[in-house]
Amino acid sequence: MKQKEEIQQSTTLSKSASALDIKMDNANDYLRSRGKTLINVEQVEPKIQHHRIDGSDQIIENTNKLKDNENQIKTSTLDDSINREEIKGKDNIKLVDLDISFNIPKFKFICNGTLCNEDQAKMIADLNLKKAKRKHIIMELLETEKSYVNRMKECLDTFYIPLKKYMKEEDLKIAFNCLPNIYKINVKLIQELNERKNNTSDLGVMKVADILNSFFTLNEVEQYYGEYIITGDSAVTYPFEIHGEEIKTLLSKWVDECKIPSNYLIEPVQRFPRYILLLESLIKATPTFTNEYIELQKVNEHIKEITKRIDEKKNNYISHQKQNYYKSYLPHPINFGTFIYEGSYY
């Protein structure tokens, strides 16, 4: 009777081993489809004897080994699937698309809600947080750009167009600098951003690096913003009141409506540094193993180069202005005559 029970237990053990073989084969097939096999069946497969096993203790021991090895397969599959993205990011093996990096459900499916360790849970939480921050920054970029363009349009409609009737072209150039040109290029920028927004279901994964790169690599951006920032003081502090009575009447009307030209004309000077701050915040909220992160870094470096060149030109402009200002206060050099010959006359 005892011998019969041992044979039945041995048969059950063999069936369990066969079932485990199938599970391990399925696991390896899954991993091979991902391009890498991490589980070697021979390393975890127990040595099962298909003949009569003497003693029930040996049967129980081998059964426990089967359970441990099955758990080992599950854990290895889980760890490799979740850590694969981290490995790619650190070693720069392969950059992934932005929307793929935020595909959180695949992590939840692998973890099954219970098998996620502390590092893996932290990674998922970090991706969720970055996605939320990215959405907020993209919304801020869209809203502030829209407001900025609308303010420039209001400035041109309220001040520039009416003043064209009473001011010379060169005076308008000094008063408004190249604001009309800046308005034109920024209208194109907000149009492209809105078009991208309308074609994106989730702002958290909306790509903007290509749009910003196209904008800041335009020669007109450095030319117009550079000119405006360098000579911006002349526009902000322009004395409109020195002109005729018609302009003074317009100024009084604008003051009653709480519309001061200088409040509008200062905005391009403030907007350019704002682009840098928004871009740096967007970079921090973008996963480092994505193509979008690399492209945003390139845009950021390009803007820094533009800013550096504009600052150098502005410093030179200020130095030149100071020289011209103090030059009138310098005494005239004494005229000692014309040099003819070095040496004595005798």
Automatic annotation (TrEMBL):
GO terms for cellular component: cytoplasm. Residues 296-323 form a coiled coil. Its EC number is 2.7.11.1. This is Rho/RAC guanine nucleotide exchange factor, putative. Gene3D superfamilies: Dbl homology (DH) domain (1.20.900.10). Residues 133-313 form the DH domain. It is an enzyme of class 2 (transferase). It comes from Entamoeba dispar (strain ATCC PRA-260 / SAW760). Pfam families: RhoGEF. The lineage of its organism: Eukaryota, Amoebozoa, Evosea, Archamoebae, Mastigamoebida. GO terms for molecular function: guanyl-nucleotide exchange factor activity; protein serine/threonine kinase activity. Keywords: Coiled coil, Transferase. It comes from the Eukaryota. InterPro entries: DBL_dom_sf, DH_dom, FYVE_RhoGEF_PH. The keyword Coiled coil applies.
